[in-house]
Amino acid sequence: MKYIDLRSDTVTMPTDKMRAEMFKAVVGDDVYGDDPTVLELEEYAAKLVGKEAALFVPSGTFGNQLALLTHCKRGDEVILGDDCHIVAHEVGAASVIAGVQLRTLQSDRGILNPEEIQSKIREEDLHYPETGLICVENAHSNGRVIPLENMRAIYKIGQQNKIPVHLDGARVFNAATYLNVDVKEVTENCDSVMFCLSKGLCAPVGSILAGTKQFIDKARKGRKLMGGGLRQAGILGAAGLVALKEMTQRLDKDHKNAILLGEKLSTIPGIEVNFEDIHINMVYFNIRVPHKNVENLEEILYSKGIKINPPENGLLRFVTHYWITEEDISYIVDTLKEVLSN
Ligand SMILES: *Cc1c(COP(=O)(O)O)cnc(C)c1O
Question: Which residues form a coiled coil (predicted)?
């Protein structure tokens, strides 16, 4: 059975083009620096986001944690939002791998207050840790895109205080698409950036960490320490090149489909869609009217060929991506309408 999978954009399969490129990829041992496809990917990725160098890493979590390990020394303090991925969804890795302390600030739907960041930067005192890094996230995993003015203000504070800024840009191309700017206009507001080749860009595996040459040279050694020195990784790199060259160009389609899905869902009685949060490919909504099928919605929809995640705090999230078509959206909405009217 073919499923329509709305759980996330992490479920995306590689495209036919990717599989073809993977099949014929020229590879070598990348730990020796011998894999031409990985080298090409890293060079292409660095240029794309306007950084000196880039490194292929196994996952987004790996890239973020490697950034912390590379920027900071043990015991440093990292300033970041309380709802960001590094804090909420990375298994506490910051305390295990980099050995840093996380100083969380309350975020306003992903936006951090620059003045508050400034006020939390440590002075020299026998008792204090040193502030080692500031982290921002764009697009935020709550589906919202952070305004560039906010990123600029935070980067300025980092520079004034000589503290690096890392961008968790897992979906940075979605952010650039929403803002209708070249991705460099987003990534120029940070010293290092991580972005995923998987997720909406459909590569099967992999992320990129980019920054200065000196930073990436150091990160390469940290990647080996973390067990991320991959051998014939060009098989994966070939898919990553398709992701960056082609798949970044079509994300507006997923964003349009998210709005379309939101509009159609909102016509179902009892469904309330958070339209102001549809910036990228995520539709958040709740079902206001009590209905016996709401509790078992996950199973009921599964039996009709639709995969969803259970609600979090009463909120459901449907994610559009390459493998979700307009016809799928009609089927999803018709099916949900029927389930909620029975
Ligand atoms: C998905 C995601 C990550 C982690 O990526 P994985 O490849 O799943 O480890 C990091 N940050 C954000 C904002 C994400 O959405």
Answer: none
197-229, pLDDT tens digit by residue? 999 999 999 999 999 999 999 999 999 999 999
CA distance 158 to 141: 23
Residue 62 phi, psi (nearest 5): -60, -45
Atom of ligand 1 nearest to the CA of 139: 13
* Interval 128-182: pLDDT, tens: 999 999 999 999 999 999 999 999 999 999 999 999 999 999 999 999 999 999 9
Which residues approach ligand 1 with their CB closer than 6 A?
A: 59-61, 64, 85, 137, 141, 168, 170, 196, 198, 207
- CA of 339 relative to ligand 1 center, distance in Å: 32
Distance 61 CA to ligand 1 centre (A): 6
Q: Rounded to two decimals, what is the model's pTM?
A: 0.97
DSSP-assigned letter for residue 90: S
Between the CA of 334 and the centroid of ligand 1 the distance, in Å, is 31
Q: Domains of the chain, with CATH numbers? A: 4-9+250-341 (3.90.1150.10), 15-247 (3.40.640.10)
Range 182-185 contact pairs with CB under 8 angstroms and sequence separation of 24 or more:
183/48, 183/49, 183/248, 184/48, 184/49, 184/50, 185/148
